[in-house]
């Protein structure tokens, strides 16, 4: 089941996509990674979906990645005594710690840490930014505000505080429980919501203890400002445009997206573009032209993956949404302009032997008749470096370590193949040549480029590059020598 595109597709599972047949259909339509949204559903629900994914993986013989997305701290107002209230532009409104039901003049905001961080002039956004207020005066247990954009406020609507870094841990008690559950379950990636600082990522990494890779969701202005530091301690990035578009002017989100994608690629770390990509397909079998353009732009930018949320989790056409993404990706990636854009943005700071090896592999593959680049890896780093080059030829990622192959399912252009532990470079050449033929990347009269590290089975030792034939007669002769 070779993918005829390089960008990966992440599909969120939910009520519309919980049974074996639907999840398998999503995978066959093009989903490479399945997202378990810990904001919804019980642990039992997620365990059942995870077990189904692993059964499909075994049935089809292809690694599949599982991404567990943690909810993060949710900031919400309290309740209202007489139902929803209309707040007019220019009206005065108070947030406080009083648990009494609210009215048209006040409501509880049960988060003292917000009051501790606020100052006069700060903004408060309610209900996905539909209501906006400016703080006039505040203290340890209150904030008196003026409504700048009015609307209807109701029970437990979410609150965003875009102007300040809140003294909140990125992991709530629920998140800690979900993190441990996801790691014990076997999730390959953990997505952290509402990251504000690199310390948030380091806390999650300490709790994960290497059992899952850490992906930071960039959805707050503070995370954008601290992005280089957050990127340095993360294994991957998600540009979560929904909350970014609430807390920042919407017109600033596209250039931020482009900048974060390029920086992530330069660091050889996978980056997902997410939120509202094909949202109309929740209820319609056809996307809008604007949505197709949005997906295409993320592909042109060089993102590793694009993501479906409610489209595949709760929509009426989950499989069609994946097929649409797959079709858009194939169309973009054969466009000559796509290669021009991708190659013009190839800006890697090459400092190591591994950097030189993978750059040479791409050069050789693109200037001679090479069918694929086969990268043997123990940690996934070599494959990530090859993918950073965005070569024209396919990438075959080979490893004896299952969890490494699963994590690499999120990385641009990779076709992941399990191999037995190797002890000699000759074995690496033979296994690569056969894999290239078996999966349709090369014929017997074609050649491949192979990268590996000697001594074997040690991470970070990439130091060999070889061009090899896929001719079975030559392979057999090599085996006998």
**Measured distance between first and last alpha carbons:** 33 Å
CATH level-3 fold name of the largest domain: TIM Barrel
How many DSSP E strands? 21
CATH class of the largest domain: Alpha Beta
Q: Considering the protein shown, what is the CATH homologous superfamily of the largest domain?
A: Phosphoenolpyruvate-binding domains
Percent range for β-strand residues: 15-25%
Q: Please state the CA-atom Rg, rounded to the nearest Å.
A: 24 Å
| Largest sheet composition | 8 strands, parallel, barrel
Morphology: elongated
Uncertain runs are none
Mean pLDDT, nearest integer? Answer: 94
Task: Walk me through this protein's architecture.
This protein has helices spanning 20-29, 43-60, 112-117, 173-185, 198-208, 221-225, 227-233, 241-247, 253-266, 289-300, 310-313, 318-333, 336-344, 353-367, 381-388, 402-408, 425-438, 472-480; strands at residues 8-13, 33-37, 65-69, 85-87, 92-96, 106-108, 123-126, 131-139, 142-149, 151-153, 159-160, 189-192, 213-218, 236-240, 271-274, 305-308, 370-376, 395-399, 414-418, 447-453, 462-469. With 481 residues, it is of the alpha/beta class. The model has no long low-confidence stretch (mean pLDDT 94). Helix 5 (198-208) runs parallel beside helix 7. A hairpin with an 8-residue loop joins strand 20 and strand 21. The chain folds into three domains: 8-72 and 170-335, Alpha-Beta Barrel (TIM Barrel); 85-160, M1 Pyruvate Kinase, Domain 3, CATH 2.40.33.10; 353-480, Pyruvate Kinase, Chain: A, domain 1, CATH 3.40.1380. Helices cover 38% and strands 22% of the residues. It is built from 18 helices and 21 strands. The strands form four sheets. Strands 1-2-3-12-13-14-15-16 form an eight-stranded parallel β-barrel, surrounded by ten helices. It has a six-stranded mixed sheet with strand order 6-5-9-8-7-11, with no helix packed on it. Strands 19-18-17-20-21 form a five-stranded mixed sheet, sandwiched between helices. The protein starts with 7 loop residues before the first strand and ends with a helix. The radius of gyration is 24 Å and the shape is elongated.
């Amino acid at each position: 089941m070779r993918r005829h595109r390089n960008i990966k597709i992440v599909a969120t599972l939910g009520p519309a996509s919980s049974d074996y047949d639907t999840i398998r259909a999503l995978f066959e339509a093009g989903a490479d990674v399945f997202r378990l949204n810990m904001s919804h559903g019980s642990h039992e629900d997620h365990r059942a979906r995870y077990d189904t994914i692993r059964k499909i993986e075994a049935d089809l013989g292809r690694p599949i990645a599982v991404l567990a997305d943690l909810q993060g701290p949710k900031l919400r107002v309290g309740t209202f005594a007489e139902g929803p209230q209309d707040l007019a532009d220019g009206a005065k409104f108070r947030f406080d710690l009083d648990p009494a039901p609210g009215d048209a003049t006040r409501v509880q905001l049960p988060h003292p840490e917000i009051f501790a961080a606020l100052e006069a002039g700060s903004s408060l956004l309610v209900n996905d930014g539909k209501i906006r207020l400016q703080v006039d005066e505040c203290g340890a247990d209150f904030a008196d505000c003026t409504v700048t954009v009015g609307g209807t406020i109701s029970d437990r609507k979410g609150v965003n505080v875009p102007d300040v870094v809140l003294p909140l841990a990125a992991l709530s008690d629920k998140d800690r429980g979900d993190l441990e559950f996801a790691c014990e379950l076997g999730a390959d990636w953990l997505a952290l919501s509402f990251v504000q600082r690199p310390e948030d990522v380091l806390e999650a990494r300490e709790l994960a203890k290497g059992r899952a890779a850490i992906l930071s969701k960039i959805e707050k202005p503070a995370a954008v400002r601290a992005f280089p530091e957050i990127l340095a301690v993360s294994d991957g990035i998600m540009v979560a445009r929904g909350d970014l578009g609430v807390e920042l002017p919407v017109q600033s989100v596209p250039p931020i997206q482009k900048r974060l994608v390029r920086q992530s690629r330069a660091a050889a770390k996978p980056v997902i573009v997410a939120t509202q990509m094909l949202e109309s397909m929740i209820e319609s079998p056809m996307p809008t032209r604007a949505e197709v353009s949005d997906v295409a732009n993320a592909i042109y930018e060089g993102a590793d993956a694009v993501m479906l949320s409610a489209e595949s989790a709760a929509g009426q056409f989950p499989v069609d949404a994946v097929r649409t993404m797959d079709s858009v990706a194939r169309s973009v990636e054969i466009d000559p302009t796509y290669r021009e854009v991708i190659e013009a943005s190839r800006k890697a700071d090459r400092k190591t032997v591994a950097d030189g090896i993978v750059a040479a592999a791409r050069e050789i593959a693109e200037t001679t008749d090479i069918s694929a680049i086969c990268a043997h890896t123990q940690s996934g780093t070599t494959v990530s470096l090859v993918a950073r080059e965005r070569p024209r030829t396919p990438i075959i990622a080979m490893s004896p370590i299952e969890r490494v192959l699963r994590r690499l399912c999120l990385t641009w252009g990779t076709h992941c193949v399990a191999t037995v532990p190797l002890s000699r470079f000759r074995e690496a050449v033979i296994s690569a040549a056969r894999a290239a033929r078996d999966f349709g990347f090369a014929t017997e009269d074609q050649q491949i480029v192979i990268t590996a590290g000697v001594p074997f089975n040690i991470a970070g030792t990439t130091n060999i590059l070889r061009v090899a034939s896929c001719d079975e007669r030559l392979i057999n002769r090599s085996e006998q020598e």
